[in-house]
Design goal:
Layout lengths: L12 E6 L2 E7 L4 E6 L6 H16 L3 E6 H6 L1 H12 L10
Parallel strand pairs: 3-4
Antiparallel strand pairs: 1-2, 2-3
């Protein structure tokens, strides 16, 4: 879904280093980071680490949005819609002419 500028022409880079962290996906031109969280993120300690990471990346001028693995695999349309909203281009899923 984020390959080869297939999402409204935006280029996303996978495993993109941002200073001390590696973002799951980053769109440099839109200053957008997408994090995909699995089972290891579902406890208080992990949530605190994720919040610290998000805060740091946002201080560098990026917007960070997070999804659970389950959302990516089972609610793909909603994930795409959220990303398009963040990019300000949420017209790709509109079936009307």
């Amino acid at each position: 879904m984020l390959r080869a500028k297939q999402l409204s022409g935006y280029k996303f880079r996978r495993q993109y280093p941002i200073v001390n962290y590696i973002a799951d996906f980053a769109c440099i031109s839109a200053r957008l980071v997408i994090e995909v969280d699995g089972d290891t993120h579902g406890n208080d300690e992990a949530e605190a680490r994720d919040a610290k990471r998000t805060e740091y990346i946002e201080r560098l001028g990026y917007r960070v949005i997070r999804f659970w693995n389950d959302q990516v695999f089972n609610a793909t349309d909603g994930v795409i819609e959220t990303i398009l909203d963040a990019l300000g281009t949420n017209t790709a899923l509109d079936p009307s002419p």
